[in-house]
Design a protein that fits this description.
With 480 residues, the protein is of the alpha+beta class. It has 12 helices and 12 strands. The N and C termini lie far apart (118 Å).
Length: 480
């Protein structure tokens, strides 16, 4: 219960007591006058009680209430006092003045206490409001921090997924799907790639709700992608119709994207692609989300570059640096794979293995030099690549020797194909020192399963046939 509530309660009690005592003076005293011998004692008792009530009036009602109670009491006491001894009258009047002064003094103290209480209460209420506001702000910060932590955990999952993906298709799938989960289902995620040696953007991945419009890459507009590509910077547009930097073309007007974020995927000054997130609502993205897409874009760019480097490393490991053909080790592994695949066909699948050797290559190197010899090796490698079919394997076996694995090839077709290879190489001149030169090759042929069911047997048989072709005069095919 507050002091104000207690004071109001006292006012009611004092008021009721005053009314009761005044009523007693007015009604009870005349009634007792003829019946009680010492009436003045009752009157004095009532007056003393009234003086105390006047003091309480001053205390609880203030100056106005105290004066009013004093005057009303004196009016009611006038008749009883005039019938009493003057001595009692003087004492009672003095008592009333003393009680009024005491009541006034108490009233002032109570007023000061009320002021202090009000100030303290207002200060406490202000502190409580500040605490409520502080708690509200901190709750908002905690919620925001929780959302940021959740976003960072999702970024970690994206980074972990990208770290184990070594294909551009896998990276595209991971980035588009995880970005879509991160930014919500009302948005559309687009992933563009730029092929090496090309300037055109290719839409490699898209994730969206069915109600969103289809993104058209071929439009003359696409000023947002163009701006990002030219400036090599990330772009945040809160409302495409209000952004002064862009004048929308017909393609952008038809598209339902109102706000968007685009992050270029840049490695060492080269743009590998773009990651775009757009929404049909204005102001759909905050600076925090803009930073998120920036991080995702950096992760995607590194992943794409790692994929390219991995592919280059893989090619260096399995391809000859001079001719671009597969190396000896990779070729033998593929021969084993083809043998296993052919055996699954119950002997119905056949293939041919050709071993080629350049005739008189040492004398050619001695006459024209090793640089010219390298040119000859490259020329033959290009020729073999040009006549190979899908699935065929061409490799540099070592030095001036090449091997060729032709799939789905029987004896008749193998001999004919080997002759085409020999004739094609022999009829293709190469210019060295402004002089047309011709080189020839000898070819040994082995067949699966006729000449063996193991790679060692097939290679040994082809090598044997090659030796036989060499011994027989070179520039010929020998298949046994």
């Amino acid at each position: 219960m507050t002091p104000f509530t207690k004071r109001n309660f006292l006012r009611i009690i004092v008021g009721c007591l005053s009314i009761g005592l005044l009523y007693s003076l007015h009604k009870l005293v005349p009634f007792l006058a003829s019946r009680v011998q010492h009436l003045e004692l009752i009157i004095i008792s009532i007056m003393i009680m009234m003086s105390l009530l006047v003091m309480f009036f001053w205390s609880v009602f203030g100056v106005i209430g105290g004066l009013a109670s004093f005057l009303i009491t004196m009016i009611f006491l006038y008749n009883p006092l005039t019938d009493m001894d003057p001595y009692y009258y003087s004492v009672l009047i003095l008592a009333f003045f003393v009680s009024s002064y005491i009541g006034y003094y108490i009233s002032k103290k109570i007023g000061i206490s009320e002021q202090k209480y009000t100030v303290s209460k207002e200060k406490i209420e202000e502190d409580v409001n500040l605490l409520h506001e502080h708690v509200k702000n901190r709750s908002g910060e905690v919620l925001t921090m929780g959302n940021k932590i959740e976003s960072l955990l999702k970024l970690k999952n994206i980074a972990d997924s990208l770290s184990v993906s070594l294909s551009a298709e896998g990276i595209t799938k991971i980035v588009t799907e995880e970005t879509f989960r991160l930014f919500g289902e009302n948005n559309r995620v687009l992933f563009f790639t730029v092929q090496e040696g090309e300037r055109r953007l290719k839409l490699a991945g898209e994730v969206k709700k069915t109600r969103r419009s289809e993104f058209k890459v071929r439009g003359k507009g696409r000023i947002f992608n163009k701006w990002v590509r030219e400036n090599m910077k990330s772009l945040l547009v809160k409302d495409v119709k209000k952004d002064f930097r862009f004048s929308l073309g017909a393609d952008e007007v038809k598209d339902d994207a109102v706000s968007l974020m685009i992050k270029p995927l840049i490695i060492e000054g080269r743009i590998l692609g773009m990651l775009r997130v757009d929404s049909p609502r204005a102001d759909a993205f905050t600076q925090h989300e803009f930073r998120l897409i920036d991080i995702i874009g950096e992760l995607a760019a590194v992943a794409l570059e790692n994929t390219r480097l991995y592919r280059q490393t893989e090619e260096l490991a399995i391809k000859d640096s001079l001719t671009g053909l597969y190396v000896h080790r990779y070729f033998t592994e593929r021969v084993e794979e083809e043998i296993k695949r052919a055996e699954l066909g119950n002997g119905k699948n056949t293939f041919a293995l050709f071993m080629l050797d350049i005739d008189n290559f040492k004398e050619f190197n001695d006459e024209y030099g090793h640089i010219s010899g390298d040119m000859v090796l490259k020329k033959i490698a290009r020729k073999l690549k040009s006549i190979s079919s899908a699935g065929d394997i061409v490799a540099r076996y070592g030095g001036e020797e090449f091997v060729f694995l032709a799939l789905d090839c029987d004896k008749k077709n193998a001999t004919r194909f080997a002759e085409e290879i020999r004739e094609g190489i022999g009829s293709s001149p190469i210019v060295l020192r402004r002089k047309k030169c011709f080189v020839t090759v000898s070819v040994g042929v082995s067949l699966f399963p006729r000449d063996g069911r193991r790679k060692e047997e097939l290679i040994a048989r082809a090598d044997e046939m090659l030796y036989k072709a060499k011994a027989g005069g070179k520039n010929r095919v020998c298949s046994g």
